[in-house]
Amino acid sequence: MDAGDGGAVNGGSEGERRPRVVVVGAGFAGLWAVQRLRREPVDVLLLDRQNYHTFLPLLYQVAAAELGPTDIAYPVRSILRDQKNATFRMAEVVEVDLEHSEVVTPVERIPYDHLILGMGATTHYFGVEGAEEYAFPLRTMDEAIPLRHHVLSRFEEAAYEADAEHRQRLLTFAIVGAGPTGVEFSGALSELIYGPLQKDFPMIDMATVRILLIEAMDGVLQGMPAELSDYARDRLERRKVELKMGSAVARVGPDWVEIEGGERIGTETIVWTGGVRGAQGPRDWGLPVTRSGQIEVERTLAVPGRPGVWAAGDLAYLEEDGEPLPGVAPVALQQGTLAADNIMRQIRGEEPKAFHYRDPGMLAVIGRNAAVARLGGRNFKGFPAWVVWLVVHVAKLIGFRNRVLVLVNWAWNYLFFERAVRLILPFARRSAGDRPRPERPRPLPRGGGSGEPVGEEGVAADEPRGG
Ligand SMILES: Cc1cc2nc3c(=O)[nH]c(=O)nc-3n(C[C@H](O)[C@H](O)[C@H](O)COP(=O)(O)OP(=O)(O)OC[C@H]3O[C@@H](n4cnc5c(N)ncnc54)[C@H](O)[C@@H]3O)c2cc1C
């Protein structure tokens, strides 16, 4: 049975309605929550605006032409195929109607008994003028692919550009934010440029290429011990990445980035990895959000004052030992699991449990043979950390096929200093500024306008139902 077209709606004895759990977001939090409910007497509906789960820790490799999109994404319907009590619907949630306990998509209103919000985070530009308009974000697949096309297209254009000034702008790449994503993307971009692109473009003087990593704070990988941060810094410099630390970006234009103090750098590629804030929706839906747009949750992950509503992952704000929990995958999947457990506890009339983070450690890779890791209170760097990084990331990927594809691609890149994924597809853009922006779908008004009849449980009435 296809998970999305049937799925159990009613279980138990005929006529008895089982509690309905609606989960929004098929990221680490949402997916782990759904899978945790696999054997429970509830009906689960998972909603995501995409029909695939993305393994975000390897997204920068898609942007740097190291891996293809299908290597790190997996169709949600395939993941849930064997879970009899779960249904998937590809839909953007545009509102949560707390008063009527309904989730609203552009085509239907879906009632819930319990709701887990796991919609993740979006890029935060800190109000920097021009950043949202002209810089490339790197948080979703549909942001990584245009960035890859854009980078490769800069080289195609630079190869025949007679104007030296314009050529320099084409060959200057500015990455804003020296956290893990900025560091990893800078390292991967350097290996792409000084590896296969150098061989492919003998007419380009590679000495003129500039990769800048711009950071407002003083060092790279803040939060890592100084020894690891210094190592990462050294390895990036060896890979010809120029570090501009203590340099806050003041403004961004179509072909320049300006640092506070007035320095203006000509570039057609500005990649913004600098900030993160909770997904947009909850800010508009009357949920208690922090200044960073995250939902403030209780230790049980329940949203205070909103019975039946839970939040997990990047979207949830929770502190441990006086510090906000980091926006990382282990937090999200542990929280998704606990939210599901607490829903079941509540259904059984038991007390929900408090969340405590089991920190598996921190990892970041700078490039071939170079990574940093903080595991079990010990620091690792260089080749051993790189091997740990490889093993952890392959092990965590969903799907055997994806693991094999990633391993084959990495082995190929490693042995031949090559990048196989270098197609420039027609939707490559000339500059960041002409990025098409999707229109935000509108919520469906109560009691009207649905394209399809909606059944009692918010399932289209003509959909087959299974048990
Ligand atoms: C480039 C990058 C690199 C990273 N590297 C690492 C790393 O190396 N290690 C690590 O531990 N963490 C890393 N992280 C962080 C980690 O990926 C996140 O902490 C984790 O994905 C959070 O999981 P989540 O389920 O909360 O959100 P997500 O995984 O972001 O999933 C959210 C889901 O919600 C869906 N969604 C959003 N809004 C709606 C809506 N309105 N309607 C329907 N669906 C919606 C989205 O399509 C998405 O599928 C990285 C993140 C990024 C962006």
Name the CATH class of the largest domain: Alpha Beta
- Low-pLDDT runs of 5+ residues are 1-13, 428-433, 448-467
Shape: globular
Which cofactor or ligand species appear? flavin-adenine dinucleotide
* Portion in helices: 25-40%
CATH architecture of the largest domain: 3-Layer(bba) Sandwich
> Percent of residues in beta strands?
15-25%
Q: How many helices in DSSP terms?
A: 13
SS class: alpha/beta
Number of strands: 27
Strand adjacency order, main sheet = 5-2-1-9-21
What's the main sheet like?
5 strands, parallel
Task: Kindly list the characteristics that best describe this protein.
467 residues, alpha/beta, FAD/NAD(P)-binding domain, 2 domains, 5-stranded parallel β-sheet, 30% helix, globular, binds flavin-adenine dinucleotide
Overall description:
- With 467 residues, this protein is α/β, with parallel strands linked by helices.
- It folds into two domains: 20-123 and 277-347, FAD/NAD(P)-binding domain, CATH 3.50.50; 131-274 and 361-425, FAD/NAD(P)-binding domain (3-Layer(bba) Sandwich).
- 30% of the residues lie in helices and 21% in strands.
- It contains 13 helices and 27 strands.
- The chain has helices at residues 28-36, 59-63, 69-72, 76-80, 131-134, 141-159, 164-170, 180-200, 226-238, 281-284, 329-347, 383-396, 400-416; strands at 20-24, 43-48, 52-54, 73-75, 86-90, 95-97, 102-104, 109-111, 114-117, 121-123, 136-137, 172-176, 210-214, 241-244, 249-253, 256-259, 264-266, 269-272, 276-278, 295-296, 309-311, 316-317, 319-320, 323-324, 362-367, 370-375, 378-381.
- The strands form nine sheets. A five-stranded parallel β-sheet has the order 5-2-1-9-21.
- It is globular, with a radius of gyration of 23 Å.
- 43% of the residues are buried.
- The structure holds flavin-adenine dinucleotide.
